[in-house]
Every structure is written in C-alpha cells, then in structure tokens.
# Entry
Amino acid sequence: MRQATPVAGRCGLGDHDRRLQGEIRRTQENRIVRMAGYIEGRNVSLTFRPPNRAPLRALGGFDIAVEEGEFLSIVGPSGCGKSTFLNVVLGLTKPDSGEVLMHGKPIGGPGSDRAMVFQEFGLLPWRTVQHNIELGLELKKVPAEKRRATAERLVVLVGLAGFEQHYPHELSGGMKQRVGLARALATDPDVLLMDEPFAALDAQTRDLMQAELLRIWREARKTVLFVTHQIDEAIYLSDRVVVMSKRPGRAKKVFAIDLPRPREYEMRVTPEFNDLKLEIWNTLKDEIVA
Amino acid sequence: MAETQTLDARVAALGGADAAPHRSLWRRIEPAAWGAGSFLVLLLVWQFVPYFVPLKPGTRLFFTVPSRVAATLWQMIVSGSLWAPLGVSATAFAIGLAIAIVVGLPLGILIGRSSLLNAMFDPFITAFNATPRLVFLPLLMLWLGIGLWSKVAIVFIGALFPLLINTYEGVRNGDKLLINVVRSFGAKEWDIARLVVVPNALPFIVVGLRLAIGRAVLGVVVSEFFGSQEGLGVVMVRAASGFQVDVVFAGLIVFAGLSLLMTGLVKLVEDRMTRWRPEHVNAP
Amino acid sequence: MAEQAIVRPTFAARYRKILLGGFAVILFFAAWQAIFLFVPFNPLFISKPSLIAAGLVDLIGSGDLFHDLAVSAVPFFIGLAAAVIVGVPLGIVMGWRPRVGYALDPLMTVFYASPLVALAPLLVIFFGVGVSGKAVIVFVLAVFPFIFNAHAGVRAVDQLLINVVRSLGGGEWDLYRMVIFPSVLPYIVASSRIAVGRALIAVLVGEFFAASEGIGYAISRFGDIFALDRMFGCILVVMVIAVVLTEGIRWAERAAFPWRTRQ
Ligand SMILES: Nc1ncnc2c1ncn2[C@@H]1O[C@H](COP(=O)(O)OP(=O)(O)OP(=O)(O)O)[C@@H](O)[C@H]1O
Ligand SMILES: [Mg+2]
# Structure
C-alpha cells in the first residue's frame, strides 16, 4: 500500500445494514484496518505502447481492495483507465508493474469465477441472442438443455423475451447491453465486472435493471465491480465508491456509502444522498476540468 | 428549395425508401422489368442493325447477329461438338481451383495468425497478386509443356491469391474485442478459432472464392488461347482466325454462363451463411 | 496470440515487418542462386539471379527494354484513360438515376462476369495488332471496374450526411462538394487498382497474340528462343511495374483518404 486510501463519508453502520448483510467484514472498522481484500490491486500501473504512436500511461499506481460480497463502484473521467483496470481483473491484460490479487493469489488469466459486462457489448454478430447468452456455458461444456434453460430464464430476467432468435444487428443498443448482462450472469460468476453496463439504457429500463442487479447481488452474494459515469447510480447501488484521478488513473478518494439496505428508490431524494453526491462530484470535478 | 426537393426524392429512391402500399408490387418488379427490358432492347438492336446500317464487306465479315449465335450454340450442343472441348477446359478449371482452395485456405489462416509468416510472405503475395498471371505462361509452357498442366498452373496461380488474401484478411480482421470476450469465458486458442476467427473470416473467404472463380475462368481462357491444343478456348481462337464469329460468341456465352453459374452457387451459400449480417456487407 | 492484449515494449516494432519482408526476399534470391551450386539444372529451362541480372543490364544498355516498355505503355494508358472517361460517368449516372441503374445493372453484371478477354482474338483481327487493337482490349477489360465502383460509390452516399449538410444550410453544390464527391472518389481510386491489373493482362494478351514489339512480345520471344535469363528479366520487370502501380495507388488511397484506411 503505497498510498493510503482516504475514506470519507459517515462512520458507523446502521443496524439495518448489518442485519441485511449479516457480516461483520462489511464494517467501516474493517476497512480502515485494511484486512487483505478479496480482490486487491496494489500499485497497478499499465502503459499502452501502440505501434507508431506515443506510449500512453493508462494506470499509474492504482490501489484498491474489494471485499467479498461487496458492491464497489468506480467513477472517473473518461479515458482514465477504468476499463483497462477491469480488463486486468478479468485477466485479459497484464499490468507493467504492481499486481492484482484474488484470494491472495495473483490473477494469471481469465477464469470462470469472473465475468465481464463489456462496455461495447462484444456480442458475437453471427450468434442469436440465445446463443450469445449460452456462450460461457458452452465453453464450460454445460449440456445443451441446461444451457437453454439458463438462457431462457435470463432472457426473461433482462426483459428480452421473444427476442431469443434475433441477431445482434436487429437489436437496439440497450437491448444489446442487456444481452451482454445476461451472458455474464449465465455462468454464475462470483465476481461481476460491469463496465458501464447501463449506459445504453433508457432511464426507466435503467431503474428496473438497477433494482434487478441489486436483487441478484443480494441473493447470489456476488462481488460486483461497477464502472459508471453516473454518480447517482454509483451511490444508489454501492457499498463504496472509488473516485479515480484523470489519466494515468489512480484511486483519488474512496467514499463509503452508508445508506441502509435494501436501497429504495426514494433514497435518491434524501439529504444524505444529495450530500454524498455533491461531495463525490466535487472530488471528481477537479479531475475533469483540470 | 425546388432543387433540394428533387435531391430528396432522388436520395429516397436510392435507398429504396418506403413506397405507398398500392405501388408496392410495381416497386418490387420495377428493377427486374428495367433489367429485362434493357437486355431485350440490346438484343433487338443488335439483331436488326444490318437492316438499317449498311456494313462494309470487310466489317460484315466480323459481324453476326444474336439469332445466328443462338443457332450456332444450339448446333454445338446437339451435335456434341461443344462437349469435348468444354470437358477439357472444365477439367483444367476444376483441378486448378481445387488445388488453389486446398493450398490457399490453410495458408491464409496460418499467415493471418502468425505475424512472422505474414511479414515474410507479404512481399511475395503482393508481387504475385499484382502481376498478371499471363506473364508466367510462356515459362510454364516451357516447364510443363503444352496441355493440361500448364493450364492448371495458370488457373492455380490466378485463383490462389484471391483466396489466400481474403482468408488472411478475414482472419486478421477478427475483432479483438470479440476474441477478448471469448477468452474471458475461458476459451483456448482452438475455441477462439472456432467461435470467432472462422465465423468472422467466412464471408471474406466466400468473397475470395467468388473472385477466384472469375480468375480461374479467365485463366482457362487465356491459357488455351496461347498454350493448348484442345479446349473451348482453342476452338474459339481457331474460329476467330477462320472468321466464324458466331462460334466465338457462342464460346463466350458458354464461359460466361459457367462463371455466372458458379458464382451464383457461391452466392447462394453465402446468403445462407451470412444471415447474421446487416443488409450492407462490406467485405473487400 | 496470447500477447493480443498484453502490451509489451518492442523496439523498432514498426520496422519489423519491412525488415522481415526484405530479409525473406533476399533469402529467396540467395537460395535460388545457391541451389545451382548443388543441382545442375538445364539452363534452357531455368536461369539464376546472376545471369538474369546480367541479361537485364544488357537489355537496359541496348535500349531494347525501354523501347518495348514504351510500346506497351501507349495502348495501356490510352485504353485506361478511355475506361475512366466512359466508366466513371456511366457508373455515377447508374447510381444517381435509379431507373438507369435498374436497366443497366444486370447487363453490366453479365459483362463483368464473362471472360471478355475471350473477345481478344476477334478484336485483334478486327483492329489489328497495333496500338488500337491493344487499346481496345485494355478498354474492354478495364471499363467495368470503374462502372461498378462508381455505381457503388454513389449508392453508398450516406443519407444522414446529406441531411446534416443540408440542415447546416448547404445547397446542391455543397452536397456534391462535401458529401458526394468525397464519398465516390475513394471508390473510383480503388477501382483503378483493379482496372490496372486487368489492363496489364489486356496488354499482354494483345502482345502474345501477334506483335512485333512490346514487353509481352519480348517475353514470349525470349521463351521461344530459350533465352531464359532475358525472359526472367522481363518477367521481373513486369512484376515490379505491376507492384509499383498497384501499391502506388494503394499508397495514394491511404494518403488521400486517411479516414477510410482499415486497421
Ligand atoms: N488497446 C489500447 N491501445 C492503446 N491505448 C489504449 C488501449 N485501450 C485503452 N487505451 C487508452 O488508455 C486510456 C484508458 O482507456 P480506458 O478504456 O481504460 O478508459 P476508460 O476510463 O474506460 O474511459 P471511458 O469512461 O471513456 O470508457 C485511454 O486514454 C485510451 O486511449
Ligand atoms: Mg471504459
């Protein structure tokens, strides 16, 4: 830990939350004493060296510790390395220096314990919605019937019933994004990496999907790393929100969100919510204008 | 204002924009009607030119009319004089194309996946692809003799490069994001090829195949013009020097029919395979 | 494959391809030369790089090579120019006027698909073996790529861009200037690459048939008299010219239309 992570926000945890999560490791105190996280990034640095272009430093000493079952959001200016970091956690990219540990072991490559909802969807254009959702299961050699059953369930979950046999080019942006979400959920990973998963959705669908995501997270006890540009969304969903600096990306400040769970839609208009929003915005603003 | 409106209309027509329902039948058959009409007009004009335009005797020697060409073609079909030379030409075509496919696809995939091989092969591929195959014909005739194998070689060289280059482009063009996606779900190299690289390259390969067929037919024709004793091309050259113009045209029609038929078949396969693509495919 | 997304510093990565390619070419010629040390090939059937080089020097020194090239170049350029002048406007009209497109598209498809080179014997006999005969063959083979690509270029004009320009107050001329020309031009340049290849074939066909000069004639004559070194020399010259022309156009495409470059 080269860089202590400043923690802001209210200390102390509501009874409500404790009852719901039922786990001491979520408490503020734990975070301050910094037990080794479930996913832990230590001083992660990464420089892109595209041919015929100047090298570009995307991550410059990013520190983060995510606890098991935590919902953690990352906000930061565009191009600050958020997607890059998720790719590192996913195991697609290796950092130049620093390391990312999971369960205390370095991440060596992709694994079925993690799945990503990609920012640019990444649907295979020659596969129907159903077969796109089944992709991960197919690679895990799950039998066809089971795959179909899972896909059917998820298609309904993301509100795409009736579109099973459509090809990606026949879907709208928001629909594609929901296919990407269903695909990531299909393999039932412990860790969900979500790269602006709701960015292409309309406001109403977004609200519904947020509620759905929170339900899945609570019931299936997943760990979620959630990248978004919407401060509201980050606060509403998360246990903690990490604000990143501009490129090369570092963790600038971490905010604990001590709103009670389950989160209700009405919480978005409470004074606490708005205070937090303002505070995060002020932290983020400097990185964007500067 | 008027100007922009006409432009609007034209642009709308370009895109085949929405038509009023009662006109939709005409809308649908209009292109075909115009196409068929132009064919008909061309044939009629050609047929009746001699009645309106006085031709010089020298020119008349080179002139024929569609009815005569059709009669000659029919004659060649029923008398059987078409089939033997056509068989010879088709054999060279088939063998050359088959070897080109067998060599071109694996090599294209290999070069597409290995940047080292790609860098080393690139100058040769560029050079041989740019060069008209015909320059090698005298050399090939020297090496392989006049007959089947020099023709096969020309067909092969002609057909190989479109296949090779398109396969390679298709493999190279494999979307990095999609490769990353399947890797993130634990795909190994083989799965990547199966799930992303090959499906992505298929449309390119089919386009390559279509080009290759065109070049293969061309290869048969030209190599028979210069380096052969039998084949439909030979029949055509002999006919040309004997001023039997209808035979030349009959041969041309047969070759054209052959290449249209083959490319049509490939197109059918292509349409079946690329249902997932949006309307406008921009393969190279 | 595994390094797909894992970025490592590579020194002189940008020159790697050129270096490796050059290395492969040198290796090829060296191997060609070296193999004669071990296998006694019949010099009537194959030649080696050193002899080819000497033959080429000879041909250049005597002026024969340039004479033949000049003879071939004249019908090549005349035919190509005629193909542009006829093909481009025709293609644009076919694209802009739907009815003309409907009428001519099937006809052009049939012509494009038929091996029109089969008409070469007739054309040679009719127009003679001189410049005009060859130029006509060049025109016949080269015109269709221009028609097709100009047609495709006009059809590919983006309706959205037209609306954008018009909404910003552009008139008819602005549309041509800002949308239509820029979108058709790359297609035409691309088609010239295909057309150049077909034009080269046309010149060679014309000269193989019957000619007394020209580069195609030189190749077939050196073949007839078993002057393999000169024959190879001429073949290499044709290859170089073909590569320079097509790659030159490709380079021009990249320089002029940087937004279109794939990858
Ligand atoms: N494959 C790559 N090659 C070169 N540079 C890259 C590559 N991927 C990302 N970058 C650069 O790295 C920086 C960080 O990119 P990244 O995609 O992580 O940003 P981001 O924070 O996700 O932005 P956004 O919020 O806009 O999605 C950017 O400046 C981008 O240009
Ligand atoms: Mg991103």
